Amino acid sequence: MYLLAQGLRLAFDALMTEFRELAPDYGVFVTHWHEAMRIFFLRYCLLWCSASQRPDPLTPREKCMLPLHNMPEFAKAFGCGNTAGFVGGRCRM
Questions:
Q1: Count of H helices and E strands in the chain?
Q2: Whole-angstrom Cα distance, residue 5 to residue 74?
Q3: Structural domain of 42
Q4: How high does pLDDT run on average in the chain?
């Protein structure tokens, strides 16, 4: 799980750096960054979709959601930081 969380963090930071560099100005960055975050997180979870029947300690849903629960940016993008069941900063990896 640690590697999944760290890989997600690395990819997210790279996206943010690239997005800032390619945005013509700060206004464009601010306008589109929220939607870019949402798309990034959705695509990350789609990577784990599978019809595989092999035994695995984690389900595809767990592989998607557990690393995301360790990212405040995910909570901000989807407005889920204060909802029941979202652990947010309590299990930071």
A1: 4, 0
A2: 12
A3: 2-91
A4: 84
Residue among 82, 46, 45 nearest 67 (CA):
45
Read off the tokens for 27: 């206004």
Instruction: Give the C-alpha distances (Å, rounded to integers) separating 28 from 16, 34, 37, 39, 82.
Output: 13, 11, 14, 17, 28
1-19 confidence digits (pLDDT tens): 788 899 999 999 999 999 8
| pTM for this model (two decimals) | 0.78
Are the C-beta atoms of residues 14 and 75 closer than 8 Å to each other? no
- Check residue 88 and give left, alpha or beta (phi > 0: left; psi -120 to 50: alpha): left
Domain count, the chain: 1
